[in-house]
């Protein structure tokens, strides 16, 4: 089974040379730590920066340079700043190659819910609806089950949707899955995790049509 | 040169009345019009409709207007950093219209650019699209979203000149340029106001035509919401 850093490490392998990547808050943010350093990648933050670097050294924080999580950041050579409309032109116009975000629920048809739990605090969707509606290449990073042990990979989402039929790939603490017309296709198992365990943790339709290899991370 | 300067924040906010719709730039606490917000608090105008990506924190930014119960409705994409906001929303004192962030930016830009509405894929199939026209283009579904109509737009820039030309710094740019010229009156506050001719026309981010009033803010706290650093090795 993987921890959050393990999930991030596995997703980092999906990041290819020349990609512009938008990372959501939470596990996705960790992906930047594991991207190979022999490839060229630029991270976009929807509040208006391309070419995000690591956190600043203490004393070098700049209130005017933050990421979408409102954290102080730095920029790398080649970086640029822009306004919010331009930022979402990059996203909506499919100039960003890969979007990695978290989710509360994903359905077997690729629907995603990650912005609202009715009756509890509603924080808002931020840029998530724009991202999922537009990106061609979306990877969801999440735990396979919620804190109560219930599956987050469902037949149908129970929470208000963020987007419909948009998720292509999911990396969880247990598995790598692809969303197909028939359901969740199991591509890889986390180290030490059996197909049986993944089946039990997946409420939606799980397709196991071949020998499923263990992740290589 | 058409001069846009006003002497102070009081003159800059002349004409702001109860029940008006205001746009306020900023992302989190980054690039917010701090001085205009302080003046709105002092003026005690109420029943305001505020278009702003976020709602500040409890004791800073738009949180100050919330504390004073000056806001009737917030139109935002993310409001998760504010307990008073949550309390007012759950008790029904405050109306909230959550809007996808890219749609929010484009509703400002559309108002600025003279488009009454536009189609976006964001929110299709979700509760955001309920009651809105949808349409298919090239096999994909889109939602019709309308441009904002606002009375005042309050933006904050790094530098500005007497002609109202603006230059922003870092990610403090965010929604500010999209909101310039998107309301009946755009009020820009800047950290440094310089004479016309001091800024290189090649470097201007927002041309002064989109700005009606400009002033230098008295002070900027520039509070950091999440101070994140890495160790020096």
Automatic annotation (TrEMBL), chain A:
The protein, known as: 3-oxoacid CoA-transferase subunit B
Pfam families referenced in this protein's UniProt entry, alphabetically: CoA_trans
PANTHER family reported in the protein's UniProt record: KETOACID-COENZYME A TRANSFERASE, SUCCINYL-COA:3-KETOACID COENZYME A TRANSFERASE SUBUNIT B-RELATED
SMART domains listed in its UniProt record: CoA_trans
MF terms (GO), sorted A to Z: CoA-transferase activity
UniProt record similarity statement: Belongs to the 3-oxoacid CoA-transferase subunit B family.
Protein source organism: Maribacter luteus
InterPro entries: 3-oxoacid_CoA-transf_B, CoA_trans_fam_I, CoA_transf_AS, NagB/RpiA_transferase-like
NCBIfam families cross-referenced by the UniProt entry: pcaJ_scoB_fam
Keywords from the named record: Transferase
Stretches of the chain forming a coiled coil according to its record: none
This protein's record includes keyword Ribosomal protein: no
Automatic annotation (TrEMBL), chain B:
Keyword Lipid biosynthesis carried by entry: no
Top-level division of the source organism's lineage: Bacteria
NCBIfam families per the UniProt record, alphabetical: pcaI_scoA_fam
Entry-linked InterPro entries: 3-oxoacid_CoA-transf_A (IPR012792), CoA_trans_fam_I (IPR004165), CoA_transf_BS (IPR004163), NagB/RpiA_transferase-like (IPR037171)
PROSITE patterns with a match to the protein in the record: COA_TRANSF_1
GO molecular function (one): succinyl-CoA:3-oxo-acid CoA-transferase activity
SMART domains xrefs: CoA_trans
Annotated Pfam families: CoA_trans
Name of the protein in question: 3-oxoacid CoA-transferase subunit A
Keywords, in A-Z order: Transferase
């Amino acid at each position: 089974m993987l921890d959050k850093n393990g999930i991030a490490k596995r997703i980092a392998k999906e990041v290819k040379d020349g990609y512009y990547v938008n990372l959501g808050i939470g596990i996705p943010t960790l992906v930047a730590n594991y991207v190979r350093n022999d490839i060229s990648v630029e991270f976009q933050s929807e509040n208006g920066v391309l070419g995000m670097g690591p956190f600043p050294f203490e004393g070098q924080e700049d209130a005017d340079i933050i990421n979408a999580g409102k954290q102080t950041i730095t920029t790398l050579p080649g970086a640029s700043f822009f306004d919010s409309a331009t930022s979402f032109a990059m996203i909506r116009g499919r100039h960003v190659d890969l979007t990695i975000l978290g989710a509360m629920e994903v359905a077997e048809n690729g629907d995603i819910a990650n912005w609202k739990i009715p009756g509890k605090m509603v924080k808002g969707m931020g840029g998530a609806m724009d991202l999922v509606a537009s990106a061609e290449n979306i990877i969801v990073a999440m735990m396979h089950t919620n804190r109560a042990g219930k599956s987050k990979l469902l037949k149908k989402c129970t929470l208000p949707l963020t987007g419909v039929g948009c998720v292509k790939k999911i990396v969880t603490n247990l598995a790598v899955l692809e969303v197909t017309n028939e359901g969740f296709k199991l591509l890889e198992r986390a180290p030490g995790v059996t197909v049986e365990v993944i089946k039990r943790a997946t409420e939606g339709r799980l397709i196991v049509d071949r020998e499923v290899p263990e992740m290589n991370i | 040169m058409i001069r846009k300067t006003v002497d102070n924040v009081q003159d800059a906010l002349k004409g702001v009345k109860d029940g008006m719709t205001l746009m306020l730039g900023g992302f989190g606490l980054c690039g917010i019009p701090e001085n205009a917000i302080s003046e709105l608090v002092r003026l005690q105008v109420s029943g305001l409709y505020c278009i702003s990506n976020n709602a500040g924190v409890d004791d800073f930014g738009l949180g100050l207007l919330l504390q004073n119960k000056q806001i009737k409705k917030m139109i935002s994409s993310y409001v998760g950093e504010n307990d008073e906001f949550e309390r007012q929303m759950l008790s029904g004192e405050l109306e909230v219209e959550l809007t996808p962030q890219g749609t929010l930016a484009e509703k400002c830009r559309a108002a600025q650019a003279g488009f009454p509405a536009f189609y976006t894929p964001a929110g299709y199939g979700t509760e955001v699209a309920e009651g809105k026209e949808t349409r298919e283009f090239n096999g994909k579904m889109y939602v019709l979203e309308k441009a904002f109509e606002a009375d005042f737009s309050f933006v904050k820039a790094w530098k500005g000149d007497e002609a109202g030309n603006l230059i922003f710094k870092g990610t403090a740019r965010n929604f500010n340029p999209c909101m310039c010229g998107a309301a009946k009156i755009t009020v820009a506050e800047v950290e440094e106001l310089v004479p016309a001719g001091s800024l290189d026309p090649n470097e201007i981010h927002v041309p002064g035509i989109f700005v009606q009033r400009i002033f230098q803010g008295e002070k900027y706290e520039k509070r950091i919401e999440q101070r994140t650093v890495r160790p020096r090795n």
